[in-house]
Amino acid sequence: MKIYNDLQSFTPPAYAVVTSGTFDGVHEGHQKILRRIREIADQHGGETILITYWPHPRHVLFPDDHSLKLLTSIEEKAELLEANGIDHLIRLPFTPEFSQMEPEEFVQKILIQGIGTKKLVVGYDHHFGKNRGGNFDFLQANIDRFGFELEEISRLDIDSVGVSSSKIRNYLEDGDISSANQYLSRPFEINAEVVHGKKIGRQIGFPTANLKPLFKHKLIPGIGVYAVYCEFEGKRHRAMLNIGKNPTVDHSENVKIEVHLFDFSGDLYQKNVKVIFVDKIRNEQKFNNLEELKLALKTDEHKARIILK
């Protein structure tokens, strides 16, 4: 897959099959659209093109609202799109000026002049242009003038899988990893850097690596203990992970992410790791002392090993 950060470096193929959107999470609903444009491209000897926008439009239009957390960074999204058959990914910079582009201008400058669109496939709720004024009805009403073919993935097709990025975010925030993974059709992942912590885990036989997500807008699952895999340097390790405030040993309100790798010894500081969420074990609890915490962690490890077996 080729990646472009502007249209100037893009050369339109002979038959461009195009879709556009934020595609956060590249979930099952998105994958229906991606499968369809791949199918059309193969039928016509064409190439698939996906237009996305970065930063996320809400982060630009509402800079003081930090509530939206994303399922995928732009790098994670690119990997998933390539795995789903996209030939060309065009990442258009989303700016306040870009947000004022009228739907007609978007179609003429980007879809027609910039990409040479031969077939455009959109989801039933697709909007584009200033104030989201462009939609399927606008495209359909002007399709003869625009000169490309248009196809809409119907509400029935998308809703049949009952999925949306918002629904998946809600599942993750509730700690419902199983449901989130089902609708993503893959395990949820976080890429992070290992940073220094208080090293309390070492005192009770459960050394942990403190993690700092590489993408600041990455959604973090709800507070609790999870069975996970931890990947780095080409190897996958079974592990358990805690997201929380460590109320037994820490009185701060800061939420921390700590992972304990099973059967591992070594220095992970400043390494980048990938955490793959498999299931939730329990909610975070406050114990009376370190001995109670240690016993609980032993139980957590036993449960995690069974889940990851």
TrEMBL record:
Enzyme class, spelled out: transferase
Cited CDD domains: FAD_synthetase_N (cd02064)
Listed EC numbers: 2.7.1.26, 2.7.7.2
Riboflavin kinase domain boundaries: 183-309
Keywords: ATP-binding, FAD, Flavoprotein, FMN, Kinase, Multifunctional enzyme, Nucleotide-binding, Nucleotidyltransferase, Transferase
Pathway(s) served: Cofactor biosynthesis; FMN biosynthesis; FMN from riboflavin (ATP route): step 1/1; Cofactor biosynthesis; FAD biosynthesis; FAD from FMN: step 1/1
Domain of life, per lineage: Bacteria
Membership in a protein family: Belongs to the ribF family.
Listed name of the protein: Riboflavin biosynthesis protein
Species of the source: Persicobacter diffluens
